[in-house]
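Exercise 3.2. Students should predict the tertiary structure of the chain below and write it as structure tokens, then compare their answer with the key that follows.

Predict this chain's 3D structure.
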Amino acid sequence: MIILLNLFSLPVLLAKCNAIMNRKHYQFLERGVLKLNTREKQAYLNNKNLNLKIIDYKILEYFIKNPNMILSREQILLKVWGFDYTGQERSVDTHIKILRKALGPYQKGIKTVIKQGYCFETKVFENG
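Answer key:
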């Protein structure tokens, strides 16, 4: 122990220990049959990997973190693409279409709310 204290300050040693512990820790977000591994950025539906592109994964993660709420295109753009995005708001629609296709029979879980945005309905995934 004395050797370690001579090599690192206590805060540095603690930070290194925490980093090692976090490497082995996986965080999962779950909504019934839908499960996200937030460390690996992977989405699973009925334990099958959806193989989403990172942008589609981020949208799905945003939905899961904000269940049953209407999210506007602008909110999704700001959260997923960031403040410096210069493209069209309709890009969100394209990625929602991709997500729905990946979700197959559970695509009804992403509801379009006309003139407002999208809503991730958790009951679709929890009732299977």
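Discussion points: The longest helix spans residues 10-23. The chain is about 45% helix and 20% strand.
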